[in-house]
Amino acid sequence: MTKVELMTQAVAQMREHLTMPEWSVSEKIVLAAHILHSHGHGSGLAGQITARADHSSHFLTQRIGQGLDEIRLSDLLTVDEELRVLKGSGMPNPANRFHAWIYREHPEVTCIIHTHALHVSAWSMLGHPLEIAHMDTCVLFDDISFLPTWPGVPIGDGEGELISKALAGKRALLLAHHGLLTACCSVEEACIVALQIERAAQLQLLASPVGECQKITPELGKEAHDWLLCESRVQATFYYYARKALHEFPSLLM
Ligand SMILES: [Zn+2]
């Protein structure tokens, strides 16, 4: 069999053998928040996770005032695109306005994660895009945009429009002087891609002082990208990190 045939066969087999509990979107948001916090994405109250609710222009998010590690199911709000609270108590982070812009302009996106992860934040100060030159980080190969200008605190519609356009059809965005953003078709995918942006930044900060990162072959980068983002593989990876979170906090989803 050719490599392509073997990969196609493996994807079909993984779909059959790799299964994940049927968590609700709310449960996946809580799990993702804890997974991200335990991988260096916490930065005080900064960062938001949102996912589309049943109504296409409404979305779920955490209420402002909590760190990623504090989020529980009862803390989630359902808001409309003007950030009016439709369900739950408290207020959303006003920066969720740029999420509303992305949901409006990218109908395929169902989950957005934005964090100020440590290594991404450090790299974002240098004014350069990330170099995707390691197999693990190929989930980002030709799939991460770069916004080189910092528009300030992203509370207004101007920043929402700018950030949404800067995504340019990619799954991820590096925001100069700020952090990362992922806009994906599931909570699991948005979380796994966010983890890899932070890892890519950490790897680049480790490699850069030693020498120049060597580019990988585009065709192989694309191959690895598609392989790593196969749905059952993404779900299995999310499930692995979720098990660790639930082991540490057994009552997380109660
Ligand atoms: Zn931010």
Could you please describe the fold and organization of this structure?
- The chain contains eight helices and eight strands.
- The protein has helices spanning about 5-15, 25-35, 95-105, 120-125, 155-165, 185-205, 220-230, 230-250; strands at about 50, 60, 75-80, 85, 110-115, 145, 170-175, 180-185.
- Strands 4-3-2-1-5-8-7-6 form an eight-stranded mixed β-sheet, sandwiched between helices.
- The mean pLDDT is about 95.
- It binds zinc ion (ZN).
- Zinc ion binds near residues 46, 95, 114, 116 and 178.
Key words describing this protein structure:
alpha+beta, L-fuculose-1-phosphate Aldolase, 8 strands, globular, binds zinc ion
- Overall geometry comes to globular
Low-confidence spans:
none
User: Could you say which structural class the secondary elements and strand pairing correspond to?
Assistant: alpha+beta
As a whole number of angstroms, the C-alpha radius of gyration is 18 Å
pLDDT averaged over residues? 96
The appropriate CATH architecture is 3-Layer(aba) Sandwich
What is the structure about, briefly put?
The chain is an alpha+beta fold.
Write the layout of secondary structure elements.
Blueprint: H1 3-17, H2 25-37, E1 48-52, E2 59-62, E3 76-79, E4 85-87, H3 97-105, E5 111-115, H4 118-124, E6 144-147, H5 157-167, E7 172-175, E8 179-184, H6 187-207, H7 218-228, H8 231-248
Helix pairs in contact: 2-6, 2-8, 3-5, 4-6, 6-8
Bound molecules: zinc ion (ZN).
